[in-house]
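[Q] Does anyone have a clean structure-token version of this?
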Amino acid sequence: MYNNTVNSVSDVNWKTWMPKEYAVLCFIRDGNRVMLIHKKTGLGKGKINAPGGRIEPGETPWQAAIRETGEEIGLKCWDVKEVGKLHFIFIDGYSLHGTIFITDKYKGEPSESDEAKPFWCCIDKIPYDQMWADDRYWLPLVLDGNYISGYFIFDNDKMLSHRVDVLKR
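[A] Here you go.
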């Protein structure tokens, strides 16, 4: 359990840290566009994000990325590549580990679901002010072809501390 004494990523031993939940994000690229969603339910409701969600028992992150993309926006994607890891601690005690995927291989037309309203967005017009505060620090790096590892401390929607490392694959 974390409390309000954890205000900085430097306060955490990330080597021994264990999240409460594991999730994925899957970014679909099409040239200079990326598929984003208006999130309608769950953590981040009302924010813009990528398709994704929690990993189910017995499922790999890769499988979850493909499943969640199909469930949320009706696209079948494949050849998803892992491009990063995200580590979140919320001072209320919640924590989450996310694996980021990206692909340009998909078929179908995006469709709205109970969870998400999809839309294509030009990469140079990504609405970071409508997304989680951390996204502006790591998403441009991922879209430029980097592999990242990001560490974030949040108090509800307010980011208290962050660190993003670009790693060699």
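[Q] Thanks! Anything notable?
[A] The chain has one domain: 22-167.
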